Amino acid sequence: MVAAGMASSDRVMAQDIDMTAYAGSVGGLYMEVMSVWISDWEKEIDGLNISAVSGGGTTNPFHISRGAPNEAIGITDTITTADAMEGTGDIGARAPDGLKNLRALVRFNALSHSAFMIRGSALPDGVTTVGELFDEKPSLRWAFFQRGNPGELTARRFLEVYGVSIEDLNDWGGSVSYNPQAEHSSLMIDGHVDVSMVMTRAPAAFMLDMDASVRDLVWLKIEEDIVDTLIDSYGGYIKVDHPAEFYDSLKEPFVTASVDHVLFVHEDMDEELAYQLTKSVLENASKMRNALKSMSEFYPEEVCHNTGRFELHEGAERACSELGYL
What we know:
Elements: E1 17-22, H1 29-44, E2 48-53, H2 60-66, E3 72-77, H3 78-86, H4 89-94, E4 102-107, E5 112-119, H5 130-135, E6 141-145, H6 150-162, H7 166-171, E7 175-179, H8 181-189, E8 195-200, H9 205-213, E9 217-220, H10 224-234, E10 238-242, E11 254-259, E12 261-266, H11 271-283, H12 285-291, H13 300-303, H14 314-322
Parallel strand pairs: 1-2, 1-3, 6-7, 6-8
Antiparallel strand pairs: 3-12, 4-12, 5-8, 5-9, 5-11, 10-11
Helix pairs in contact: 1-11, 6-10, 8-9, 11-14
Protein name: TAXI family TRAP transporter solute-binding subunit
Organism: Litchfieldella qijiaojingensis
InterPro entries: TRAP_TAXI
């Protein structure tokens, strides 16, 4: 445990702490980001020893919630923060009362954006939005991300808000498939699907392929009231404009619901330890931006805000405030 009343400038800890960092698969975003942070933490916080282990967005909250408060830290997505606090989704299946003892340190500001794209040859006349497309009840071949992926979950939620189901898409004479990211571009390029619903960072390699190779690719606008309803209904989503500068086929930004990722801890983690972890992350933000292309938007003035349904830990709030980011 960190000594009570320790001055914020004093990084000497009362005793050694062995901490487990729950990240994700080797080579994935979570493990890459966590590795950079661990290197900084162990250099700057005396007595702190951290081991990173593979984890997952929906399993990490259980490890942190049920572990020793000063001995675990994890990463998850903002959708899962809502499921954890409310006992819904995959979290609710195992913890129907929720995991309400989790608090955020920072978020990544590495947003994944929702988008619906259609081949121009399959687009009904006069249709420019997703809602207008559903009104036509078209017979189309739809591609979603693989089942269980946050993008596939978001697709189902969008359909629900629009008052449409997967069964409707089939009943209209169409078909539905669930595919990894890379297959979306090949399926669209080869003409095997008509509509691709994705949730991914921008730019994404598979999206650049699709943008360059599908000459009549059309991005359907999402009605703003639908975005608002989705965010109000489920939580964990962030309302932003989908950036347009990366893709030739996207002529202007449009409002969408996006998802981010959060570094989080147990609510009972010692305030000073949470403060020092967060302060290190914020002070080394430029290092993170330079180290990982996926974290090129990791700016301190953004990452202390919109942390899903996890409130900031009091130590993180102190660090963000002292450094002028709250």
